[in-house]
Amino acid sequence: MTSEVEDHDPVPDPASGTAAEGADGAAPGSGSPEGYRRGLGGRQIQMIAIGGAIGTGLFLGAGKSIHKAGPSIILAYLVAGAVIYVIMRALGELLMYRPVSGSFSEYARELLGPYWGFVTGWTYWLFWVVTGITEVTAAATYVNYWWNVQPWISALVFTVALYGINLISVKLFGELEFWFSMIKVTAIVGMILIGLGVLTLGFSQAGDTASVGNLYQHDGIFPNGVGSTLMTLQIVMFSFLAVELVGVTAGEAADPATVLPRAIRTVPWRIALFYIGSLVVILSVVSWTAFEPGTSPFVAAFQRIGLPAGAAVVNFVVLTAALSSCNSGMYSTGRMLRDLALNGQGPGLFTRLSGTGLPFVGTTASAALMSAGVWINYEWPSKAFDYVVSFATISGMWAWIMILCSQLRYRARADRGELRRSDFRMPGAPWTGIAALAFIFLVIALMGFDPDARVSLYAAPIWALLLTVSYFVVKARTPHVFARPTPPAPPPPAEQPEQP
User: Where do the Amino acid permease/ SLC12A domain residues begin and end (predicted)?
Assistant: First the structure.
């Protein structure tokens, strides 16, 4: 591991789209405009995209959703999945217009104004810091399934280990995410195959009761009413948080023009297989009436089938899912801080890169804050997860709102010929984007009726006020850095042949 930190030469305006010399002195074209090294290959980007859509929300949180909504939870995931696909296509259109590591923060800054870029960058940074604390807390809890270890000790070990991995190379980060995602995918596919075997061949303890009829025979598809299904939407959307992480990798993807659209195009089948497919199979094997809020649907299905070792398997999977999320947090926070600093909206110290082209200072500062999870686990080991999980939801959905708003503004300007048109256009725009925004605001409104989720709505105005005051203070000191970046010029119109 290298700890050498070098001053990064002034980076050209990312909006210019020009190649820049990498941190290692590589020739233009071998690095990204921000000075990063393009060390993430297609295989790693694909699995990062897959892993971002599969988290502890599916393996654990779905149990609470099933208990509330019954089989209609499948429809909730189907609708939410369609909204997520719209968000990712909007992000894909922006990425192909200008692939930068700052991603949606950079697009908000250019297309909506400096204030929105400032708020988005710092809010997304906060999202991953809080998520990192949440997930390292959860990982420490999962370890106790096998060993009686103090949660703060496990949290400390995980935080230090993932911090070290993120300081070695971006390729190592990508490789670790590849295998984390592979474990999650293997677990889900295995559950689906075993469940299909039970349904078609009738083997195991669940063979006599397993039936597709379980999806509608116990008080129908909406056993607790449509209202109960609507109240699960915030849990469902929480399951998809971090799917947008693939946008942050744009500055370090080896071939962003090819790899990123391919990863985004796979979103529908990923949602169909991992969420819809697994829930249809699980709820066919086990009636929804057998689920309890604190029970993983995967554990319940394995136990009903007669595989008690399944509980240990699922615990290992959710442990890797939590570590994967924390690892992603270490990765994205350093990049987001550096993007803010490069645009004069954060301390200049964060612009520095290590000898391996990594944002050493930003990652270190973020990891130091994530280590608060160690202290929380030490002080309140039984309530740590509840103290921090609600703050992640609003900040994560803010990034989605900014992606959609930026795409709407970008498409309007591109259609007028003011900006270069993206080669990867969002279908159905602008109406699909407007519908997705309406859905997100509906979810936020529903959170106000849930006492457990309402904490997020209390915290959001405080954070917004803090950011607004900070914005005007920084702008008063350095007004020149808050000018809108100059977008890439659209291509000149083709010359028309002379008329005879």
Answer: 45-475
